[in-house]
Every structure is written in C-alpha cells, then in structure tokens.
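Recap from last week: sequence in, structure out.
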Amino acid sequence: MTHHDTPDDRRDGTEQFDDLDGEADARAQREGGQIETAAIHAGQPPDEQTGAVMPPIYATSTYVQDGPGQDRGYEYSRTGNPTRTALEANLAALEGGAHGRAFASGMAAINTVLNLLEAGDHVIAGDDVYGGTYRLFREVYEDYDLSFSFVDTTDLDAVGAAVRPETALVWVETPTNPLMRINDIAALSQIAHEAGALCAVDNTFATPYLQRPLEHGADIVSHSLTKYLGGHSDVVGGALVTDDAELNERLGFYQNSVGATPDPFACFLVLRGTKTLPVRMDRHCENARTLAERLDEHPAVDRVYYPGLPEHPSHELAAEQMDDFGGMVSFELAGSLDEVSEFVSATEVFALAESLGGVESLIEQPATMTHASIPREERLAAGLTDGLVRASVGTEHVEDLWADIERALATALE
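Predicted structure tokens:
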C-alpha cells in the first residue's frame, strides 16, 4: 500500500490543529474517569471568558489575524471552528483515542477514509454493510480504480482468503447493519495489519459507550453522529477517531481539502447528545433485550437477530467485546414482501422511517428502504431476505412498544 504525502508547503490551515487544546489531549481527559463523566465534560471545560458550561456556537466563517499568517489558532471555519474542536475532543475521549475529526455526515466520514487510498488499492468489506456504504464503494470508488471484495467478515478464513497484495483496507461493521452479526475486531485488525492494510470499524450501532474498537487494534473508528451520538433525530453528522498522529494529519488534510465539515450548530447539537449517551443507551439496551426475547417467542417471527440472545451465533464474542448488546433488533417474518410492508406500515409508536438511534423508536424494511441499493440477488445471498425487518428500539415504555408490535403483526399477518 502506498500513502499520499501531505504537502510540506500547505497553506490550507490544517497545521492549526497541532496546537489546539483538546484534540491531542483527548485521551488524557478520559484517563482517570469513567465514560459517563467524559461524555459530559471531555473537550468542553467552562468557557474562560463567560463561564458558560456549554461551548458557545461560534457562528463565524472567518477569524481576525494579528498579522499576515499570524492567526490565533483559527483562520477559516471550514478548516477549524472552536465548537467543532470541542466536539472532536469529546468524541476522541469517548472512544479512548487521541484524535477526532468531525464531518457533515457519516458518509462524508467514510468517504474520507477512502480518500486515503490510491488507484489500484483493494478493500475487503462485509457482505451486509449499510447500503449507503455499499453504494459508495461500488458505484463511486470502483470508477476510480479501487476494487472491493464483499465477504462474510465473521468468517476469518474467508477474510484471509480475500487478502491480495494490493489490499489496503479492511472495512468492518459490528454489529452489522442489518443482520446484527458480530465481527471479531482484534482478529480482523490482525489480518489487516499482517497484510500491511488499515482496519477501520464503523461503530455506529454500538457507540463508544458499549464498544471501543481502538482497544481491540483498529486503526480508525467511524461514526454516523446522526444516530445514537446525536440521539434526537435532529442533526446529521459523522466522525473519525484514531490514535495515530500521522494518520490523523492525513485525515485532517482531506477533511479540510474536501470540505465536508459540520456547521457549528450541528456540532453543538451532537455535544448536547453525547452528554446523555450513557443514560439513553442503558434504556435502549434494556428495551431492545426485552423485545428481542418476546419476538423470539412470537409464532409469526421466524428468526430474531440480536446479539444479546444466547442463541445468537456470536453471543459470547459480543459479551467479550461489548459492554451491552445495543438497541437495534432485526427479525424475519414469514410473510411476503407485501405483507411485511403492511406490518411496518401498521405500527404507530414505531415510526416507519430510515435512520436509527434516536429516542423515538423507528422501524423499516431493508429490502425496500435502507438496503434497496444492493441488487436483490446479492441481498439474498448475504441473508437480507424480503421478510427482514429492522427496528431501532427507542426509550419509550417497553410495554407500549410491545403492544404496538403485537397489534401490527395481528393486522398484517393474521
């Protein structure tokens, strides 16, 4: 794998990150404290000038300089913004990493990882990754002479067999979207490193409250901030976290050069969300576990995909790698595509919508919604059947959620 060098003579402003408080010291803010405390305080001490307990929203596009080329740490808000700096330090601390980068969306973050590669490089990815990730890989980057192998990443032999001399990246989701497969981060990182490749893990489903891939050997952690980290379905954003200073500098170069960065208000909203991440995730996990257990006993349900169930094929790995099992539940119904569509349309507490991770419960049909961009033959081969339903279990009262599912099942299938 060959790496692009960051130009020594750059005047794009990315050098300003070297001395900013918070980013390089993000891990230090986590050490000695628990994640519940870091979620509230890391990267955001009270404002020195006013004492404000929340970071101000710096709604500015540019910054006055003391002289030509003599800025005070910021020169242009695409390159850096104090509100974004606070968010990036907070996210890095939650993941136990040294460096964080925030983006305008989760896809912008993933795209930036792909920017690290060169024409001719090869990527190994799971065969049930998020449909938007699949679309980016296949329909955008294959046109730029990158090649992709989509394999069952729970099968380490299959991953090893897919490695080529030009393999530069192993892309991992765990739990996967939507089949809730659990991938062994440490083992996949080792395969990647032995091949001279990077290992990047999309940690959106688990969040750093439940799982921290850097602790298991991953090089880069990716997030859609739109989901659990934002937590309220009112903001779109993405993030990358790494421990590697050189890798962080390269990610920063592309972050600034491409410009897919979040506005300061979006950063403020995510910072508000991360403060309540631990308490929200506890309820998400509790509700999801209860619904998964009940769905597993329901006669209309053929199969439940939830790593918290003892019969899940990777339950033990999930228990070792995660601190809890998350708020996402997928399940297969015995009905036809139309009947399953009727079911997800009949729920009332669960809103029929894409996305996930908000306090409200959402439900969707991957075959016609989030994963419709994957050809049906490939979907079926990967186990994404027409009867598959994905539920983002919110923080409502669990009995209201269960009553909603039972009523919708009776309406659509009985």
